[in-house]
Amino acid sequence: MKPVYSDVIQYRGSHYDFGYMQGERLRYSPILSNRKKQWASKRDRHFLINPDEVKEAIMTFASGIWDELRGLADALTMNREDAIREFGGYYLEYGKSGCSIFTASNYMIRNYDSHPLSYEGRYMIYQPTDQGYAIIGPSMQITGRIDGMNEKGLAIGYNFTHRKQSEDGFLCNMIGRMMLETCANLNEAISLLKKIPHRHSFSYVLLDKSGESYVVEASPREVAVRKSNVCTNHFHLLDEENRYRQEESRTREQSIRKQQQHTADPYQAFRVMNDSDKDIFSDKYDASAGTLHTAAYFPNQMKAWFVIGPDRKPVIFNFKKWLDGNKIHATRIKGELDYDSPFVNMQEI
Q: What pTM, to 2 d.p., does this model score?
């Protein structure tokens, strides 16, 4: 088992200052240099961008994030085009992944499945002072979020369906961030998902304080909404958008439904998702489908649970107390994975 970790980063302030703070930290982190190596072979093919188009899109849906990009660029002495390419959450290809989500009326539990070398190990807690909602959750590509919850009690996660027939648009992680940044409830999040341009095909799972849960199936061509409390890696409504092979995803979905019928409380439900003997947690890291983290969000309690790796007790974050001005004392979340590769925040690869 290899030890891995995520750093807990908390900040209150303007988006520009938030970006600048992150840029200063990234100067002393291997994350960006590792990303450069990983993306080198794809740069010419996938990284052609129109800076004005991306700026207009970000300004349309979440203008505060543009200020965050400016702060990152200034701290890293990076020109605008490079900053947009690295942090804009637009155009880039997304590596395939697994992922499973289960919701009840008062919580969401999410397994994030991918390759360890795709994981940047940053758990972010940010309260903006200029615009937008405070958010707790792990980051992807610095500005995006893998899953999370905002100060209004909107919790989100997303599951990969496929990359075929991609079009210009935002990646899942930036769409997740924009929902958390600007949407107070399910209806606002669904409305945003219907308006925003999608690069790839994903299911977005939403839960708010009402206790209702929806899955929004989104492709570059169409968006459909269904009420559900379980989601894996296939569409139910947009069937023509599905991958050719869906057996594993459908089997995992049925296993979650069956096992969660017998859970009496959130902790038991968390164990179904995180225990290595329950057939939901995956160790298929070579296939970019191994479980890296298990997260839980509680919209009414305003708490978040988080673990890295299997068979672990959750680290509990009291988001409500943090919003009231209290500091979270945890600085690092540690875990172990049955795989040799580190996260990209840990060392040069």
A: 0.95
